[in-house]
Amino acid sequence: MPELPELTSLRRDIELLLQEARLSALFQPIASLNDGEIYGYEGLIRGPSDGYLHSPINLFRSADAVGLLQSVDLACRKAIIAAFVAERLQGRLFLNVSPACLTAPDFRPGATLDMLRAVGLPPQRVVIELTETHSTHDYALLKDALLHYRNMGFQIAIDDLGEGFSTLRLWSELQPDFVKIDKYFVQGLASDVQKRQFVRSIQHIALNTATKVIAEGIETQPELDVVRRIGIGFGQGYHIARPQQHPVRFLALELSEPESPRGSDERHARSAGSLLVEVPTVAPTERSEAVCQLFTGSPQLYALPVVEGDRPVGLLKRNEVLEFFARPFTHELYGNRPCRGLMDASPLIVETSMSLQELSLLVSAAERRYLADGFIVTEHGRYLGMGTGHDLMRALTELQMRAARYANPLTLLPGNVPIQEEIDGLLADAEPFAVAYFDLDHFKPYNDVYGYARGDSLIQLTGSLLLEMADPQHDFVGHIGGDDFVVIFRTPGAEQRCRDMLEGFEHQKLEHFEAAHRLSGGYASPDRRGELQWHSLVTLSVGIVEVQPGRYLSHHEVAAAAAAAKRCAKRQSGSSVFVERRADAADIEPPQALLTVG
Length: 598
What we know:
Number of strands: 20
Pfam family, one: EAL
InterPro entries: CBS_dom, CBS_dom_sf, Cyclic-di-GMP_PDE-like, EAL_dom, EAL_sf, GGDEF_dom, Nucleotide_cyclase, Rev_trsase/Diguanyl_cyclase
Number of domains: 3
Helix content: 40-55%
Strand content: 15-25%
Oligomer: single chain
Distance between the termini: 58 Å
Strand order of the largest sheet: 1-2-3-4-5-6-7-8
GO molecular function: cyclic-guanylate-specific phosphodiesterase activity
CATH class of the largest domain: Alpha Beta
Protein name: Diguanylate cyclase (GGDEF) domain-containing protein
CATH topology of the largest domain: TIM Barrel
Domain GGDEF: 431-582
């Protein structure tokens, strides 16, 4: 970053800039990712194009250094509001405000409202967006300032969520209407499992706090597709539209759902959407007496979602409502009041695409009441229906029974059918992943010398080490059969983790050999003609294929590439890893019907 010019001169330049009103406004559209329409515009500021202060970073950094941050902040707001009205832009205006200005001793309440009145723009169309250029320490004072804005009709947004620790505290303390995920977590989202997990976590929190999420920095179609699949409702970035002085009024986004014919039915059967039950809903303004009557007249109704528009905002529970109205004079005192006063304002809300495993982890990690109350299911934040804890447990049990039916009896790991389904499902979701094919070398001579029981023990050791290496929440370990295994990595670092696993195997395998064989590095056993042949100790070969979206069409092609990579690894001496990096790996050999053993 360039050094600041001499402060006296800099202050004079900023004061002149403010006197001559030489600030100009740009606007970048914020898109609704449900319908592709423009939801609003973020107002951005630029200084004179011929100087150091053109960059907003330099402008605000300099203003803070010379004690003019409050004046510059107000001037920027005024310029953006005037330009927004002059352009006749529709939707909401997202107006950047520094938290330092809101907590400054000379903060003047009502200044922004006065600007809006002067141009005839209602505060209900304005979102105050907190842009954190400084660490925020006085949360109580900041909360008071934002409550002042809320009381005047403004909505609140927190910018750059995830960039610093304090933004998470701001979310908790201020309960904003919007959070904007920092572009770092959005860019490269399609190929980064950890970033996707972070963004999913933010979306889960947002759904349960009635917060709208805006993904910033969307620069490619794959990033847009992943953001939408996660369920985020709003987006912003160069792929949608660039900031302009005269911004676009209409967008031409590609919002068609990604095609996923392979494995889509199986994927749905393992998602929250498979538990969907249609349940009647009520509005938050519905009379409490009417809700009581609904529960009384429908004994099978255990909960009523409270939906505003198409967004769930709460949950009414049968037992709580009926117990409440069993008290004396409750019907007379509370019957005509809105039911929002009786609802649970923080029910568990999940997206229809969430996997049953992920849902079970969420339910088990959350409060016990979620298991009894059930959960609300949404699609891109829109209400679809409900699911129950009972149905979740039943579905998980059925999945476990099905997995057991196809499990290898020796290791109890999933066999060929689940492996194929997992690969096809990931291909259908257009998610990047890696497949590692493990094969024990010189295993038949080991069985001949030590017997099948000892051979089974060595296979079980291999399976145990693979389970220790894999991430149980995201990776998949399968046993093809015999001494062949597969690990499907959705988490990064497959190659290094495989190399680390081989080191552990080399150390622990020694317990499975006699001392004389360990000392000599091998043993002799008869071949098919009865002649003694020398064989090395058992080693482990690993072939890795990195699968990018669109590169393979089915598990057959992935299997062919993985088998070829494994054979390359087996040509090396000792336990070894080979990573297939050629772009045409799928064409190395014809696709095979199954992952092959041997």
